[in-house]
Amino acid sequence: MRLLVAEDEPTLAAQLREALAAAGHAVDVADNGRDALFLGEEEPYDAVVLDLGLPQMDGLSVLRRWRAAGHTMPVLILTARDAWHEKVAGIDAGADDYLTKPFHLEELLARVRALLRRAAGQASAELVCGPLVLDTRSARVSVDGRPLALTGHEFRVLAYLMHRPGRIVSRSELTEHIYAQDFDRDSNTIEVFIGRLRKKLPPGCIETVRGLGYRLVCPP
Question: Residue 133: beta bridge partners?
Fold first, then answer.
């Protein structure tokens, strides 16, 4: 999944990028409100972590602009401990959740997982497709209870498909959601990742829909 972190404090931004990347996500970082606004308007993020105290344009204004433009990605806002009015204003502006600084990274990761699950209509932290199980808490995959070794990109492709079981996902959509902005993207490599996954997953798990893309097929 592809995430945007909008945070101007360099140490915290680096910690968030590292923790979210370790959880299997592609992460972009903006250190001011104007860059965050632009990225949120131009890139298809699966979720955003948005600090309200950004320079150049505050996070609340950024969020309002996104929502007014029809951008519906889940947004987790970060607020100061005593700024309860910011929490209320953020929720009213279209935020999906909030977290008060200082916070534990584990809690932020859990809240991001919950936002991604809800956006995909998933209720459990474990995504299940027949014998295939992806645990979003540990970023681990198993088949019939046996751990499956995946590269980072293979995991991101599979995670994106498992958040959308039965839905056709185009190659270009996968490309947009598994790479960070500064990564050299090549949509042709998606076929390579799909091929590798098919060798590791049960037969018929990933179906090719000719001319359209790929679909994760779960047995009844």
Answer: 128, 142
